[in-house]
Design a protein that fits this description.
single chain, 683 residues, alpha+beta, Arc Repressor Mutant, subunit A, Beta-lactamase, 7-stranded mixed sheet, 6-stranded antiparallel sheet, 21 helices, 22 strands, 37% helix, elongated
């Protein structure tokens, strides 16, 4: 027992002696680690201190583009046709990595001060706004059976589906207002600017937003632009339209435009001149340098480039005359009545193709409602009637089936296969008269034109015999018509023009070749008729019509600036006729108005000064099974040295209509000489 006790004491004594040693070891290890930590900190401070400091103070620089005024459209005299109106706007610039929850808060805050139109708000946008509130999201998800089995994306989509089924009445006007603002913010790209409200922004709204800008990151007060039309919106039929904040970029071109640097809320030309000359009109966007801190918050904004307003288009159209012309066309159609479907007129310079005015209206015969349709002059195809006979005579001269000295034929009814066709003054054959080519134009002889067609088709006419003429005559006649611009595109610098309509050809339709010869088969546009008459007037040059005269900058006072580009006349083809052959046609057109034959068709126009040359047209037409008549007219003045061409068409008038076309032509010439050019300048 004693031995045992001694040994035990010895053991405890050894343990007690080792305890301080262990404690010392721990302190030594801790000390070493502490020294190592201090050494590392000192090393980092010395070697990388500046780098870490720079990282803390780091700032990124980006550039935000801003919209500028579009170029304006001016008339030939420098008056504004399409201008710009400035509006105060509430705008939002989306920062970097902005959370949906942040935009939700900002939208709710902004909605307290600004009221926007909610008409375009979709159910999906309303649902996205509603579910941006986490409490709403949790409540909706909780009501969906088995929601825990879905992924996060699937859960959200299920929630959206459920909210979209809520009736619109369950959301207050205030909620819809905030949702619309939220949707516009959400549609912005990173560091891009969108208009929250750009129309009818009140002074109170501007003041309230300005007062609380610090509480609404990205929100600001800016300027937006919209188109205005000092002479009325009818001119949009030529100039086209521009998209706005509500419509956004055209859906069929959105990817293309985004690739070109447009934002979704940018204004862009949607049609006609606004679209065709978009690169000229759009201008150059302003550039603002945005400096972001390490938290991606906007630290500073520096305007680097103020932007450049778009260049302007100066048109060939005279604004005052254009307004008068549209009014005259509207009045003429108002008095037409019956089954009349519209009236169209084109006034152009035959020597350079400049369109001085173009007007058109459509009419619904059932309701008598009349609507502006200027583009009806280039896309409404109309069977014009005898107005095309100048081209028919010209083709026969070029085909050498008649000559300037040998062109006399007898006007008589043409009877083939039991069908009789005749001139308006010789239905029964009691007025069989000999006429040359010029007189055939003067009296508008259908018989003469049909005989020319048979000569071009190398067919020997026998009264009452079968018409076995080869169908190649269709191509022959149409080929000559095309040279003057009838049945082909004129090339006008407005998109969407029609080529007209061709009737069927071939052996089974050979009788229609005779109708084609006097203008009662194929259909043409009023612009084509104007180009055709211009080609005769200027000595045989078919020139592209154009409405753009020049591209011009902007002067310091906001008016038209220097000319940057000018539209030069483009000759499409030249008619291969001798001077003597051209004189045959021009003499005939002069006699239509000033001739001595009892049957001349344009005598009512002889009071117009200076003197005009013209060809009237009457076509037998039908509308909804009812017989109608289409009146047309193509003319130029002065007869001796043409400076202006007037072409017009009035389809589907009552069968007794005879002089509507000439009455309108007289009014148009009167307005032209008073408004565009004084008769005193005409020698």
């Amino acid at each position: 027992m004693k031995i045992f006790k001694k040994r035990n004491k010895k053991t405890n004594k050894g343990k007690a002696a080792s305890l301080p040693f262990r404690i010392n070891i721990i302190f030594i290890v801790v000390g070493i680690l502490f020294v190592a930590l201090l050494t590392q900190l000192a090393y980092l401070q010395v070697m990388y201190g500046s780098k870490f400091k720079a990282e803390v103070n780091r700032s990124d620089t980006s550039v935000v583009n801003g919209n500028v005024q579009r170029g304006m459209l001016f008339d030939s005299t420098g008056h504004v046709l399409v201008g710009n109106s400035a509006h105060q706007a509430i705008i939002y610039t989306k920062g970097v990595n902005v959370l949906t929850s942040d935009m939700y808060k900002t939208a709710n805050k902004l909605a307290q001060y600004v009221t926007v139109s909610t008409g375009s708000l979709t159910h999906r946008q309303l649902a996205d706004y509603y579910l941006s509130d986490q409490s709403n999201l949790a409540k909706v998800e909780k009501s969906i059976p088995g929601i825990s089995n879905y992924s996060l994306d699937a859960k959200y989509n299920k929630a959206v589906d459920k909210v979209e089924k809520y009736p619109a009445s369950s959301f207050s006007a205030a909620t819809k207002n905030a949702a619309t603002i939220f949707a516009k913010m959400s549609g912005a790209y990173q560091l891009s600017t969108v208009n929250i409200k750009d129309d009818h922004v009140s002074t109170k709204e501007v003041a309230m937003v300005g007062e609380h800008l610090a509480d609404m990151p990205g929100v600001n007060v800016g300027t937006s632009w919209s188109r205005n039309y000092p002479n009325g919106r009818a001119i949009q039929g030529i100039t086209g339209t521009v998209s706005n904040e509500k419509t956004g970029l055209p859906s069929d071109r959105v990817n293309e435009l985004l690739a070109e640097g447009y934002s979704r809320n940018d204004s862009v030309g949607q049609s006609y001149l606004e679209r065709q000359y978009e690169p000229v009109l759009r201008g150059t966007k302003s550039q603002t340098q945005i400096v972001l801190n390490s938290d991606n918050q906007i630290k500073k904004e520096i305007k680097k480039y103020g932007g450049q307003k778009g260049d302007n288009l100066q048109l060939t159209i005279n604004a005052k005359f254009q307004k008068q012309l549209q009014s005259l066309v509207h009045s003429a159609e108002s008095g037409a009545g019956g089954n009349s479907t519209g009236t169209y007129a084109v006034v152009m310079n035959p020597n350079n193709g400049a369109i001085i005015g173009m007007a058109g209206v459509d009419r619904n015969p059932k309701t008598s409602k009349i609507t502006d349709n200027i583009l009806g002059t280039i896309n409404s195809s109309i069977v014009m009637g005898s107005v095309v006979k100048g081209a028919m005579v010209s083709g026969a001269l070029m085909d050498h089936v008649i000559t300037p000295t040998n062109s006399t034929l007898t006007d008589q009814p043409i009877t083939t296969g039991g069908v009789k066709k005749s001139s308006w003054f010789n239905h029964n054959g009691h007025a069989n008269i000999s006429v040359d080519a010029s007189d055939a134009l003067q009296v508008s002889s259908n018989s003469y034109m049909m005989q020319l067609a048979m000569k071009e088709g190398h067919f020997n006419y026998v009264e009452g015999g079968a018409l076995t003429m080869k169908p190649g005559v269709f191509n022959t006649m149409r080929g000559y018509f095309n040279q003057f611009g009838l049945g082909v595109k004129t090339g006008i610098d407005i998109p969407g023009e029609s080529t007209g309509l061709q009737g069927k050809s071939g052996y089974s339709h050979i009788g229609s070749a005779l109708d084609l010869s006097f203008g009662n088969y194929d259909a043409y546009t009023t612009m084509q008729v104007a180009q055709y008459m211009s080609t005769i007037a200027n000595g045989g040059y078919r020139i592209e019509p154009h409405v753009v005269q020049a591209i011009r900058g902007t002067s310091k006072d906001g008016k038209l600036g220097t000319v940057k580009a000018t539209v030069m006349p483009t000759v499409l083809n030249h008619i291969d006729m001798t001077k003597a052959e051209r004189n045959v046609v021009k003499t005939g057109l002069y006699r239509v108005v000033h001739g001595t034959n009892t049957y001349k068709t344009g005598g009512e126009l002889d009071t117009i000064k200076p003197e005009i040359s013209a060809k009237t047209g009457t076509a037998q037409t039908f509308y909804n099974g009812n017989e109608t008549v289409t009146l047309s007219l193509a003319s130029y003045a002065p007869s001796s040295h043409p400076q202006v061409v007037v072409a017009l068409a009035m389809p589907n008038l009552g069968v007794n209509a005879e002089s509507n076309n000439m009455q309108l032509a007289k009014q148009i010439y009167s307005a032209y000489w008073k408004t565009v050019e004084s008769t005193s300048t005409v020698k």
